[in-house]
Amino acid sequence: MKEKELTSVSGYWFLLIGLSCLVAGGLSIFYKMPIVAALLLLLGIFLLMGIMIIYPNEGMAATFFGDYVGTIKQTGLRWVNPLYSKQKISLRARNLNGQTLKVNDKMGNPIEIAAVVVWQVSDTAKALFDVDNYVNFVQVQSEAAVRFFASSHAYDNMEDEHETFTLRDNTGQINHFLEKELDERLSQAGVRVMEARISHLAYAPEIAGAMLQRQQATAVVSARKQIVEGAVGMVEMALTRLAEKGVVELDEERKAAMVSNLLVVLCGEKSVSPVVNAGTLYQ
After folding, report:
1. What is the pLDDT of residue 280?
2. Distances from the Cα of 94 to the Cαs of 89, 142, 178, in angstroms?
3. Has residue 137 got a pLDDT over 90?
4. pLDDT band at residue 251 under the 50/70/90 scheme
5. How far apart are CA 212 and CA 278, in angstroms?
6. In this protein, which residues make up the domain named Band (predicted)?
7. Backbone Cα Rg of the chain
8. CA distance 86 to 52
9. 16: phi then psi, degrees, rounded to nearest 5
10. Cα torsion for 248, 251, 256, 260, to the nearest 10°?
11. Which tens digits make up the pLDDT trace of 61-85?
12. Domains of the chain
């Protein structure tokens, strides 16, 4: 079912006419004209029943004996057929602060994730008549979409170096895909998703400590690897420059000793105390 616009007229004239009929009906009773009084009173009540107030960003869906007639979005004091059944619906933007969910990511690790969704009713007919409760529908589908994304992607790429799309490192893209997924799910309820973003993302408490240690170990290994690569480059450069300048002739044994000493100095975590060799490497 699609929304269709229902035109309405200004309610001020009908308010004036309705009140005038009530006053005229009261005077008819005073002048002992019961039939005229009854007709005027009934007409006045009928006209006043069709008057309604519609506020900004608000709609009024009307049905006539079960058939959807249309939605009124004109604001102010309006008048429609009093026989219509009317139901107001808010068109304002709303926030859904999703609860924190515990889900297994793509690698099977338990994580905690939550999302914030900004949504708005765009089709009042679908929202009221295509789903049972559109507010509850938004909550359930938002939770389902968050669970789907969390289980489809890894939290990070520690277990699989080829996993380039992760929840932790690609939050912007995850928010975009989550918004698109929610927009498709909620379109059948006449709801438009204005924004969707991850508001909470962390490992579950039972593995948070182990994962923290693992991240620290990974960082340490990565740092040491970079240090070793830099030290090897510096040692290679030192040997090359010594050979080019002809400062000293080094055989293989002395080269090995120099490489060992330089690597200890460059790769050590603490400052190294030099030892002066007054003798020779050879006996």
Report:
1. 57
2. 13, 13, 17
3. yes
4. low
5. 49
6. 49-215
7. 39
8. 10
9. -65, -45
10. -20
11. 999 988 999 999 888 999 999 999 9
12. 9-89 (no CATH), 94-203 (3.30.479.30), 214-267 (no CATH)
